[in-house]
Specification:
By secondary structure, this protein is mostly helical. It has three helices and no strands.
Length: 92
Amino acid sequence: MGFTDECRRALSLALRIADAELRSEDLAAALEYRTPIDLARGILMAQNRCTAAEAFEVLRKASNNRNQKLHALALEMSARFAQSHGPAHFEP
């Protein structure tokens, strides 16, 4: 193998590593955003007695109408809900 083949292989490996790192960061961000979105969706499902898909559509439309990221809207909604309802109490 010549020098150019070794350089090509090294560059190919570097690109694959960079791609894997970007994918890992994207997955971590998706997991971070998923919980608040799922909580907000659950709140909407309970309040409106709708399906998960319908609740997500409500969130999506509200996000678009407000020109706000979906996860930011979900965080805001969850925080408002938690403040207005106080702590949960479970009785045996």
